[in-house]
Structure formats: C-alpha cells, structure tokens
Design a protein that fits this description.
Layout: E1 2-4, E2 7-9, H1 17-23, E3 33-37, E4 40-42, E5 57-62
Parallel strand pairs: 1-5
Antiparallel strand pairs: 1-2, 3-4, 3-5
Length: about 70
C-alpha cells in the first residue's frame, strides 16, 4: 500500500510513478503536473522508471489557471 495525497491506495506491486498516474486517470504527458515521493520532487524524466515502494508517500499536484 502507498499513500497518495494522504489517502491509502492499493496498487500493483512496485508501480512506477507513470503507472500510478495512469491508474488514477491522470495523463502523465499533460503539462502542469508535479509529483513528489517521500517529500522529494520527482523529475518528469524519471516517472517511467522510478518505482514506488510499499509505504511510499506520493503527492500529486496539478496547476490550474484562474484566480
């Protein structure tokens, strides 16, 4: 189990960041998405290979326009 934005989530064993985004219905190729794993920002270039260990804390943030 990993934690996504503070909520526990059951996922496939050791998913990549990209896998997690797709599972959550988020297109990883969309601009304006940022991901942090265990309080460290994960560069977009590693999303396809960086795996998430059991107990990882992932924060997904989307930039939105407006004010």
């Amino acid at each position: 189990m990993i934690f996504v934005n503070g909520e526990p989530v059951d996922t496939a064993e050791r998913p990549t960041i990209r896998d997690l985004l797709v599972e959550r219905g988020i297109d990883p190729d969309t601009a304006g998405i940022a991901v942090a794993v265990d309080a460290e920002v994960a560069r977009r270039g590693v999303w396809q290979t960086r795996t998430l260990d059991d107990g990882a804390h992932v924060e997904i943030v989307r930039a939105v326009q407006g004010g």
